[in-house]
């Protein structure tokens, strides 16, 4: 989250396909032409996504080759190996082949979902990734749902009461939390609510996903209990972005003439807000939601590391520090793929929501 | 700046955005023959003054600016405030991990150095990295954005494809990967942040470029024989500069956070004191489970304060340029 | 006409709009406190609480490492090999008192007169956990597998490198024939696996032994469950020949960082926290004052050293790498040695949790421990170091040492980015050597192996865990360990190759008399010390902690002031005695009072939340009025 673009600018960045005119929707003309146009638009976006995916595949192969590391050392943990053993390991992992052949093998295998064998775990990369996916989805998925909801709700409220004390308070509070490093907040929460500070007892576990050995309902409670602190950390750091985008697009929307008209017609403020302003202002927020959705899979490297969460982010950092190249490559590809898919999905849904786009 | 603020102050909201006004004046100036340089200077002064007046009305922006000036002064005066040998480990004044006291207002680290003194020295690194990374990021973004917006045809497409591709990369993951690939040094961190965060700026600048170039005076300039370079440098660049300024301020904020993150993950230069590095040192020393809050809390607060200050400034600048965003005063 | 209806609709809409949100918030807050409330009474000591429930005594060990593989043929990490110690028997074991070799799977062993054939008598009272008898055939199978299958040689291949033939003429007799004499035959640290299970494995390079549970073994514990990156669960082997362990279950729980593990210990989530490799001084200090927690400190088995690049070369003598030529001069190396204040490093960096370095082998292994005589000793003496540098031709010009070629003396040191001690000592070295006029660049990497193998370094932080048998750590400084090709990985530690040292090495390997062998090993250490190639800075202690209300007693190794985690043998976990009924009573009292505290906290939180809600509502209405 920390390296994301700054909230207020997300929307302007995403509406530059041409200066968006707030004029009447372009939805005229026969329906068939629209459908055809949409199909062409869809095909273009999907083709773009495929090109991006391929570029990611290429990058993941070459970028991590640059890390100075000795695969054989990673595989043997620095133990002495005989020359024959070395040779066989190299053969086994295909390291004796020329680079271009390693590359084509890699691409070929990757297309069938095979990212090779992890150096340190001696097991298929895809299996290691599959093991870590549920934990990440649980953590970041929960946090995502919460901070999106909280952001939209508070964003609407603050925009509606623009300039009021509650607006100033919420905006300032969100901005402050947004500026806090997530890992630091996590560490503080651990000190205060997990280790216990002064009179506060350690209410929550220090890390991990479960205590182990629980079953049934007790297991659910146990996992929920482990989930609390990391989710709070992610929500605290994450909701500001949604809030600010929602707030500024709603303010934008509220300046529009049709709202004045609606109000002049005698509609009460709340109705105007709910029926007209909010749905229209949702578009930029919607984009942001999808951008964030992609990052749900990439997980939260820092929060997962701080809370010993057995997810993808923690796995990536650990693999990188070994470095376990096949695992790093596989994870990088999965992360980028998730973002590309989410973005493509957003692109495909966008014209259905906003008729001005995609024609 | 302040001396110019005597002129009557129009309501900020009714004022045209700076970009527009400069553009209008620019186009007007082509017809004025008398000492264009002096005129341009006066115009610049005027618009600066107008900008400052509008900025001044944003209270949070002023707070942010004040905080930044203060922190910058502290960073510059670090040798005076904290002593030149505050970072030395062989000759330390205190014992390991001492509680805050009169002598050490924020306690000591595991080597017995004053945490406050380290914090002061750390400000230098964090600010330097934040600024340079943001400049690098915005520089790349501006060049790519202007070029992609100005030219038509396949290279614009290719540039935007590359931009889009960078945009879908998980930024932090890419930055971590880059920092791992290169040596541990602050230049690595600057590069890793700059290289991974420019696409947003590029898209913004491109959009602005397209808007500027659709104005009639560009057409006129082209007709008068202005080349690509001339148009991009003399007309487009000055008009995207305000936007770039706002963007830089906002990028610095996230760059400082990313620097802290990378240093915390152990990807910074371990021989240099930075706030993120201090947090990593604290964690490695076991300060979290030992409850040594005085070692852990200050660097995080410092990062948050600086990041917040830059964000506030950036938002204020942004809303001066585009009042419809409605940032609260 | 229209208006009232609309207002009405609006009014309803308004309540509808707000109520769900507030409900949602309330539900969230409730769920939050509920999970806290529900789970917390168990929380001060979930394991103990469980012990009370079903009578099982569980020992939970927090480790800051994850398992790389459960296959003994692949596993290399300390956690994994420690677990294998518990799952499988080794031919021999080490006495917890003084590390001497004692019977394990084998009860007796002896070499033939020509020193080339070793005969082991295998015990007849060991059975696999599935009921099959464990015999010499299993041992023969294990060794033969490693000798013939490259995949099976990944982890422990080096042990069988000198084996010619391994046979099992009877269920109680194992015969190993060697190519040349080898003194380490009573120290074959290889887990023996059951042939009837492992003979069906197709690919040893890929089989991780984590498909069917429980995993068949014959050690003091049987592995019953494993969740990647989370935990490994073992249950006591009640029929273990040396006697059943006292705890019913043993769980190794993975924490991603040591602080989280320490916090878990403090809360009673775990019974024991292993240092990785040691608790930090701050952690140890903060735990020392805690009730029911004992901080255990024992001599470590590692040395922490500065290794010098003596000019990297291959076996054929081909030079490569870019080590600073100045370091080829013994006087320069000794000057660097003399200008490092080892005592300060022990006091400041390790804060007393280490022993000042002397010889190559840590004092824990008293048989082989050697220390320099007073005349030989290179103690901290920067003035003498400056003299030596002057002598070697590196005169002080301004504040820099300049060589005869006019170039200033600047060195680089390789450090492990993941090791805080490397980075801390690097800071000190930079200042000490800076005062002498030598520039130092500290180059920290996650993986130092590439520049290391390429010989592209001047100095490096180095450290090895030493086994009771020192053969391995001695062997890494012989010419035979040098790489065959430039820049390839090899067994060598830092490219040392010296005839005197090699002769001594061969001599000790063929020496079957322990006392004589120890004497040769000491001569080797003396040579290493004088060379200035290896500056042993210290031997970090093992610092670990456990809860005395969960573990009543536990065997340390060596018995007097030894360590617990990562022993040579299964002594600690096998011997650990659970704390009795008394602790459960006190635990009850504990959680009672904690429960009260939690109740109060929850009440306060709920009240505060309610207050805030009301305040917000007031303000909201005020805002609405604006």
UniProtKB/TrEMBL annotation, chain A:
InterPro entries on file: BPD_transp_1_N (IPR045621), MetI-like (IPR000515), MetI-like_sf (IPR035906)
Membrane-spanning parts: 46-67, 132-154, 175-197, 217-240, 283-307, 327-350
Pfam families: BPD_transp_1, BPD_transp_1_N
Keyword Ion transport attached: no
Keywords: Cell membrane, Membrane, Transmembrane, Transmembrane helix, Transport
SUPFAM superfamilies (UniProt xref): MetI-like
Region (Disordered): 1-32
One GO cellular component, as annotated: plasma membrane
Residue stretches of biased makeup (Polar residues): 1-14
Main location: membrane
Lipid bilayer topology: Multi-pass membrane protein
Protein name, per record: ABC transporter permease
UniProt domain ABC transmembrane type-1: residue ranges: 133-350
Organism placement in taxonomy: Bacteria, Bacillati, Actinomycetota, Actinomycetes, Kitasatosporales
Subcellular location: Cell membrane
Family stated for the protein in its record: Belongs to the binding-protein-dependent transport system permease family.
Keyword Membrane (UniProt): yes
Single biological process term from Gene Ontology: transmembrane transport
UniProtKB/TrEMBL annotation, chain B:
Key words of the record: Membrane, Transmembrane, Transmembrane helix, Transport
Region (Disordered): 1-40
Residue stretches in coiled coil: none
One Gene Ontology term, aspect cellular component: plasma membrane
Biased composition range(s): Low complexity: 1-16
GO biological process: transmembrane transport
Location in or out of the cell: Cell membrane; Membrane
Biased composition (Polar residues): 19-33
Membrane-spanning residues: 62-82, 125-151, 158-179, 185-205, 240-265, 293-314
Membrane topology field: Multi-pass membrane protein
Principal location: membrane
Domain ABC transmembrane type-1: 123-314
Keyword Zinc-finger appears in the UniProt entry: no
Protein origin, superkingdom: Bacteria
Entry similarity comment: Belongs to the binding-protein-dependent transport system permease family.
Protein name: ABC transporter permease
Organism: Streptomyces himalayensis subsp. himalayensis
Automatic annotation (TrEMBL), chain C:
Chief place of localization: other
Keyword Flavoprotein applies: no
Keyword Signal appears in the UniProt entry: yes
Keywords recorded for this protein, A-Z: Membrane, Signal, Transmembrane, Transmembrane helix, Transport
GO cellular component: ATP-binding cassette (ABC) transporter complex; cell envelope; periplasmic space
GO molecular function, one term: peptide transmembrane transporter activity
Signal peptide: none
Ranges that cross the membrane: 596-616
One GO process term, biological-process aspect: peptide transport
Span of domain Solute-binding protein family: 102-474
Subcellular localization: Cell envelope
PANTHER family referenced in this protein's UniProt entry, alphabetically: PERIPLASMIC BINDING COMPONENT OF ABC TRANSPORTER (PTHR30290), PERIPLASMIC OLIGOPEPTIDE-BINDING PROTEIN-RELATED (PTHR30290:SF10)
Similarity remark: Belongs to the bacterial solute-binding protein 5 family.
Protein name: ABC transporter substrate-binding protein
């Amino acid at each position: 989250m920390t390296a994301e673009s700054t909230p207020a600018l997300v929307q302007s960045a995403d509406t530059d396909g041409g200066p968006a005119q707030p004029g009447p929707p372009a939805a005229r003309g026969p329906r068939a032409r629209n459908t055809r146009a949409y199909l062409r638009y869809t095909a273009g976006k999907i083709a773009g996504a495929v090109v991006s995916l391929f570029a990611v595949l290429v990058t993941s192969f070459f970028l991590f080759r640059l890390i100075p590391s000795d695969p054989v050392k990673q595989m043997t943990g620095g133990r002495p190996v005989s020359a024959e053993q070395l040779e066989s390991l190299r053969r086994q992992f295909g390291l004796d082949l020329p680079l271009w052949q390693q590359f084509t093998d890699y691409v070929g295998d990757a297309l069938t979902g095979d990212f090779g064998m992890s150096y340190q775990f001696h097991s298929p990369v895809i299996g290691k990734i599959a093991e870590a996916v549920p934990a990440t989805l649980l953590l970041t998925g929960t946090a995502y749902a919460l901070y999106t909801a909280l952001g939209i709700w508070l964003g609407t409220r603050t925009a509606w009461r623009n300039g009021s004390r509650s607006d100033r308070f919420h905006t300032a509070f969100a901005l402050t939390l947004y500026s806090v490093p997530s890992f630091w907040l996590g560490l503080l929460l651990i000190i205060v609510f997990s280790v216990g500070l002064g009179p506060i007892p350690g209410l929550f576990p220090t890390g991990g996903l479960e205590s182990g050995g629980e079953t049934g309902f007790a297991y659910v409670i146990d996992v929920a209990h482990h989930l609390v602190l990391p989710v709070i950390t992610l929500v605290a750091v994450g909701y500001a972005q949604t809030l600010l985008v929602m707030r500024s697009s709603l303010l934008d929307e509220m300046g529009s003439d049709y709202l004045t008209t609606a109000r002049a017609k005698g509609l009460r403020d709340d109705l105007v807000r709910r029926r007209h302003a909010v749905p229209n202002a949702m578009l930029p927020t919607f984009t942001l939601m999808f951008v964030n959705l992609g990052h749900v899979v990439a997980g939260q490297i820092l929060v997962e590391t701080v809370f010993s969460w057995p997810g993808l982010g923690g796995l990536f950092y650990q693999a990188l520090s070994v470095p376990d190249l096949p695992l790093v490559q596989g994870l990088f590809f999965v992360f980028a793929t998730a973002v590309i898919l989410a973005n493509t999905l957003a692109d495909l849904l966008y014209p259905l929501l906003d008729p001005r786009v995609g024609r | 700046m302040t001396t110019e603020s005597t002129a009557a102050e129009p309501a900020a909201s009714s004022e045209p955005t700076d970009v527009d006004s400069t553009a209008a004046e620019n186009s007007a100036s082509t017809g004025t023959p008398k000492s264009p340089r002096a005129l341009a200077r006066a115009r610049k002064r005027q618009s600066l003054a107008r900008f400052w007046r509008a900025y001044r009305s944003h209270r949070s922006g002023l707070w942010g600016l004040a905080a930044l000036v203060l922190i910058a002064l502290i960073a510059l005066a670090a040798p005076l405030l904290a002593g030149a040998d505050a970072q030395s480990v062989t000759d330390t004044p205190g014992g390991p991990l001492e509680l805050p006291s009169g002598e050490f207002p924020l306690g000591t680290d595991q080597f017995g150095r004053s945490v406050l003194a380290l914090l002061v020295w750390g400000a230098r690194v964090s600010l330097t990295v934040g600024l340079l990374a943001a400049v690098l990021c915005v520089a790349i973004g501006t060049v790519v954005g202007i070029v992609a917006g100005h030219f038509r045809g396949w290279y614009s497409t290719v540039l935007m494809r590359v931009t889009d591709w960078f945009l879908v990369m998980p930024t932090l993951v890419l930055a971590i990967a880059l920092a791992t690939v290169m040596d541990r040094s602050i230049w690595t961190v600057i590069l890793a942040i700059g290289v991974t965060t420019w696409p947003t700026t590029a898209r913004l600048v491109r959009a602005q470029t397209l808007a500027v170039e659709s104005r009639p005076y560009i057409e006129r300039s082209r007709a008068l024989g202005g080349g690509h370079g001339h148009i991009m440098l003399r007309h487009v660049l000055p008009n995207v500069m305000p936007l770039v300024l706002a963007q830089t301020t906002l990028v610095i904020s996230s760059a400082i956070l990313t620097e802290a993150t990378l240093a915390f993950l152990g990807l910074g230069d371990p021989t240099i004191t930075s706030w993120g590095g201090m947090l990593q040192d604290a964690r490695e020393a076991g300060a979290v489970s030992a409850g040594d809050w005085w070692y852990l809390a200050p660097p995080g607060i410092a990062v948050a304060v600086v990041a917040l200050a830059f964000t506030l400034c950036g938002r204020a600048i942004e809303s001066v340029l585009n009042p419809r965003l409605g940032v609260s005063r | 006409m229209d208006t009232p209806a609309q207002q009405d609709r609006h009014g309803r809409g308004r309540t509808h709009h707000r109520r769900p949100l507030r409900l949602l918030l309330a539900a969230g807050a409730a769920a939050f406190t509920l999970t806290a409330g529900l789970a917390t009474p168990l929380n001060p000591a979930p394991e103990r609480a469980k012990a009370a429930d079903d009578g099982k005594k569980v020992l939970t060990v927090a480790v800051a490492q994850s398992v790389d593989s459960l296959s003994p043929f692949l596993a290399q990490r300390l956690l994994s090999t420690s677990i294998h110690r518990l799952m499988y028997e080794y031919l021999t074991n080490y006495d917890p008192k003084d590390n001497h070799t004692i019977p394990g799977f084998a009860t007796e062993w002896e070499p033939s007169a020509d020193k080339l054939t070793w005969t082991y008598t295998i015990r007849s009272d060991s059975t696999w956990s599935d009921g099959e008898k464990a015999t010499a055939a299993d041992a023969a199978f294990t060794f033969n597998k490693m000798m013939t299958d490259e995949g099976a040689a990944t982890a422990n291949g080096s042990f069988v490198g000198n084996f010619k033939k391994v046979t099992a003429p009877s269920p109680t007799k194992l015969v190993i024939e060697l190519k040349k004499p080898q003194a380490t035959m009573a120290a074959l640290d290889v887990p023996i696996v059951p042939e009837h299970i492992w003979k069906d494995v197709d690919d040893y390079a890929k089989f991780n032994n984590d498909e069917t549970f429980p995993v068949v073994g014959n050690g003091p514990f049987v592995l019953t469950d494993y969740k990647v990156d989370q935990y490994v669960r073992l249950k006591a082997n009640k029929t273990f020949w040396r006697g059943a362990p006292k705890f019913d279950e043993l769980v190794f729980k993975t924490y991603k960082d040591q602080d989280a593990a320490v916090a878990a210990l403090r809360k009673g989530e775990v019974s024991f926290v292993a240092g990785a490799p040691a608790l930090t001084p701050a952690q140890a200090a903060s735990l020392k004052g805690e009730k029911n927690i004992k901080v255990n400190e024992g001599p470590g088995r590692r040395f922490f050293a500065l290794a010098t690049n003596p000019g990297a070369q291959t076996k054929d003598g081909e030079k490569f790498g870019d080590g600073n030529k100045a370091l080829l001069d013994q006087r320069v190396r000794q000057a660097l040695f003399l200008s490092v204040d080892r005592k300060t490093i022990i006091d400041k960096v390790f804060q007393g949790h280490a022993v000042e370095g002397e010889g190559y082998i840590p004092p824990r292994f008293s048989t082989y421990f050697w220390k320099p005589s007073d005349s030989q000793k290179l103690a901290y003496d920067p003035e003498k170091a400056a003299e030596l540098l002057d002598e070697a031709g590196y005169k002080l010009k301004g504040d820099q040492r300049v060589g005869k070629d006019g170039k200033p003396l600047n060195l680089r040191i390789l450090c492990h980015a993941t090791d805080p001690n490397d980075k801390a000592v690097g800071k000190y070295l930079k200042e000490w050597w800076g005062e002498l006029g030598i520039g130092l660049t500290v180059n920290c990497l996650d993986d130092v192996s590439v520049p290391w193998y390429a010989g592209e370094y001047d100095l490096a932080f180095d450290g090895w865990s030493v086994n009771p048998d020192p053969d391995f750590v001695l062997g890494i400084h012989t010419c035979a360990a040098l790489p065959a090709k430039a820049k390839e990985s090899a067994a060598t530690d830092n490219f040392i190759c010296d005839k005197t040292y090699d002769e001594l090495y061969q001599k000790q390997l063929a020496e079957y008399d322990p006392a004589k062998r120890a004497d040769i090993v000491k001569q080797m250490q003396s040579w290493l010390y004088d060379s200035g190639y290896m500056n042993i800075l210290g031997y970090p202690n093992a610092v670990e902690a456990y809860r005395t209300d969960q573990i009543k007693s536990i065997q340390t190794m060596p018995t007097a002031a030894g360590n617990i985690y990562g022993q040579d043998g299964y002594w600690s976990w096998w011997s650990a005695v659970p704390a009795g009924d008394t602790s459960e009573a006190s635990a009850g009292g504990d959680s009672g009072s904690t429960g009260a505290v939690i109740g109060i906290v929850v009440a306060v939180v709920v009240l505060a939340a309610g207050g805030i809600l009301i305040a917000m509502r007031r303000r909201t209405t005020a805002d609405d009025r604006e």
